[in-house]
Each structure stands twice: as C-alpha cells, then as structure tokens.
Amino acid sequence: MSVDVITAVWRSGVYDGSNLIVLLALADWAAPDGTRVYPTIRQIMEKARLSERGARDCLRKLKGDGFLILVKGSDGTRGMANEWRLDVAKLWACAGETEKKSRGQIEGDNYATGANGDSHGGKLQLHGGKLQQIPHTPYIDSTVINNRHIQPSSAPGGASRAKASKQGEEPEGFAEFYQAYPRHEGRGQAERAYRAARKIVSAEILLEGAERYAALRKGEPAQYTKHPATWLNGKGWLDEALPVQSATVIPIARASLFDWEERLRIYYGYVSEDKEYPLPKGTWNKSWGPAPHEQGHKVPLEAFAKIKPKVA
What we know:
Blueprint lengths: L2 H10 L4 H13 L11 H8 L3 H13 L3 E5 L10 E4 L1 H26 L8 E6 L2 E6 L7 E3 L2 E3 L7 H11 L5 H7 L6 H11 L5 H15 L10 H6 L23 H11 L33 H6 L6
Antiparallel strand pairs: 1-2, 3-4, 5-6
Helix pairs in contact: 1-2, 1-5, 2-4, 3-4, 7-9
C-alpha cells in the first residue's frame, strides 16, 4: 500500500464512479513508485464490488488513458495475474492542473464577493507596500415597474416564477438515465424520484445501475420490468449484478446478439489473445448448433457483420 499513490489518485480528479474505485484499488496494491501491481481479476472484482465485465471495462479505460501500463502478461494459466504499473507522474500532473483550476475559481469568487464575503468587495491590489481593496459596483439585474428599479425577488411573483422555472428543469443526467432504463413509463414520477436519489448518489452510479438492470431484463417480458420510479425509490442501483451467463452455456433459443458475437470471437481466434482465458482458434461448442462454415448454422447475420475473421 502506498499513501503517496493513493493521494495522487484522489488529487488528480480525473475519474469518478467505478473507474475511480478501481484506480484506488490498484493504488492500494502499488509500491510507492507505482510498480508491483499484480492483482487477479477476481481480486479487483471483490475489492471494487464490480462484475467481471465491469472490472475489465475499467481496466481497459485506465489503460487506454495511459494511467495503467501493462508490464508483463500472465503465462496463460487461468487465475494468474498480469503485472501492471501506475503512471504516478501523470497522476500528479493531473493533480496540479486540478489545483490550478480550483485556485482560479477561488480567486474569481474573492473578486466577486470580496475577501471578507462582502458582496460589495473588490479586487485586492498592492499599493505602497500595503494590500488595498479596490471596490467595484456589482451588476444588478433589475426590473423596471412604474419607472422604479425593483429587484426580481421583490417584483410581484418574481421569486415564485424563478422557483417554478428551476423546478421545471430536468435534473442533470436524468435524460441519459431515462434513455438507458429498460422501461419508459411515468417520466414525471421518475424525474421526481431521480431528483431525490441524486441527493445521496452520483448520476454516473444511477446510469450504471440502469444499464445493469436493462441488461438483466433484456429478452424478458416487459410487463414485469419495474417502473423507473419504483426502481429509484427502491434504491435499485445498490442491487448487485447477477452473474453473467457465459456464452458457452446459454441455449440457442435464448442467445442474444452479444452472445453470438462472443462465440464468433472465440471461433475466429480473438479470445486466444487473452492471456488469462486462452481458447484455440476454431473452438465451437456443439450446443451452439452447426459451426459458422456449416450449412444450417444459427449465427445471425448481424453478428457476422460486426465480427470479421482475423486477417493473417
């Protein structure tokens, strides 16, 4: 465990949600220079409270962004771990940028409100060896009523109209959540439940929960899918994802397009590149029906369109 690396992760401000949790977990395993990180995928899943797919997605994201570097792959034995290295210098560089932005925001607030919180304050400047406050006149948005300048809050109905306008706006992230959720009914109730849920949890966690639930309900009767407000009020985002059935055991009649794509990846030899779960090219389970090159196969055309044979 390295406190320095964990501190760099926190101060970097690059990620939130699952990506942040996985990055913190890796930092917890790392040496002070970011090396010697070799947990198994199972250990990452348990520490970050993620499914296997979720953990692998986070690792791909961190690796793609350059914060996680593969030092050495496993020897192909199932359960063995890759060795990783965290780019600590890059994390601290991001932390510096985040602190600069924070200081800039604070300076801007001080200019607008004054160092002592006075709304009529001004910018501090050095004159004659002493700090002096240069006053400025704040901008006041006013409404003219009967040739008199009246603040919007004191105008008849001004405060109530402003409050109604604010309440009429959808919460940030709600549109994405509602689009990802598998049932689109009771949008008004869902919006109110979403607004309440956002007080205790981030928009990203709600979106991830909706996507998990959508994957769980895929192919299931729509009438048994929870309304979005019911799911939110029941804190459905806390439900753990059910173990994802392997594409090798799902019956043909229930196989989704994603399952067929995974089977084609195995058949064309893409999965053989995975050091942790190697499979030889041409592997095809008899329970999947005839192989793709055989007559009467059940592989959808959409799967062929997305997964192409490897070019030698």
